[in-house]
Amino acid sequence: MDWQTLAAQLFPRGHAITEADNFLSGSAHAGEQTVAVVGTTGHAPIGIEIALAQARFVLQTVREHPGRPILMLVDTQGQRLRHRDEMLGINSYMAHLGKCVELARRQGHRVIGLVYDQALSGGFITSGLMADACYALPDASIRVMGLPAMARITKVPEERLIELAVDNPVFAPGPINYLRMGGLHEIWSGELAAQLEKALAAPSGGDLRSLLGQARGGRKLAQRVIDAILTDSDVLPP
Predict the structure, then answer these.
(1) I need a labelling partner for 29 at 20 to 30 A (CA). Which of 7, 102, 145, 166 fits?
(2) Transmembrane residues, as ranges (predicted)?
(3) Torsion over CA of 131, 136, 140 and 141, rounded to 10 degrees?
C-alpha cells in the first residue's frame, strides 16, 4: 500500500502529511485529536539525512506541541549500506533518533509505530520498535535479517535455518511471527482509522514485548530471564 492510500484510510478527516525524498512528516486528525506523523516511504534506506530529519521532527513536536501523539509510519530497507554513512557514524545518528523518541515518551507523548510496507534491520529498530506499541498491516514484510544473510554470519546452513523457522518465529520473517514474539501488539485489518484511535486510547503499560512473547509462545525465556535478574535469582530454574 502506498502512503497516500494509507493516509486516506487512517485519517478520513484529513491530513497535512508531505513527502520529501522518501521522508514523511506532518500532522493529521485522528478522531478528536491531532497526531504528529513521521516516517519513510519507498523502501527508504535510513542514512544520516533521514535519521536526522526524523529526529528533528520528533524534537520539534516535543518543543512546539507538548503531549501530541506521534505516529511513526515504517517502510524501510534498513540502514543505508554506504561507506560514507559508515564513516560518518550512521550508528550514532540512529542512536540519536532512538534517544529523541525516548525523550518524547518521557515528556508524555504517546508513540505508535505502524509497519505498512517493509521493515528491515536497523531502520525498524530505531522507528517502530522504539514506539510504545508497534502494529503492522497484514501484507507488511518484516525481518531483521534474511535467512541467507543469517546463514553466512552464523555459519549455520540455510537449509537448517529454514527448518528452524517452521516452529521458531525468531528465525522466520513476517508480521505473524513478530506478533508471536511480542514485537507487534496487533496486526491491523478492517477500518484503519478505528484501529488507530483504539491504539491511541490504550493505556501505556511500559515495554510489554517480552510478556506478550511469552504469552503467545514466541519467546519462552525472555521474561523469565528478566524476572530472574530483577529478583536476583537463578536465571533458569532446574
Answers:
(1) 102
(2) none
(3) 40
How much is the pLDDT for 236? 54
d(CA 187, CA 184): 7
Prediction pTM value: 0.88
Hey, which CATH number is domain 3-137+188-204, 3.90.226.10, 3.30.420.40, 2.30.110.20, 3.30.70.270? 3.90.226.10
Q: What is the pLDDT of residues 48-86, one digit of tens each?
A: 999 999 999 999 999 999 999 999 999 998 888 888 988
Contacts of 204 (CB under 8 A, 6+ apart): 110, 132, 133
Please report, for residues 135, 144, 192, 226, the alpha-carbon distance to residue 199 in angstroms, rounded to integers and kept in the order given: 9, 24, 10, 26
Q: How is residue 11 written as a grid cell?
A: 485519517
| Torsion from C-alpha of 46, 51, 54, 58, nearest 10 degrees | 140
Q: Which residues pair with 28 in a beta bridge?
A: 15, 35
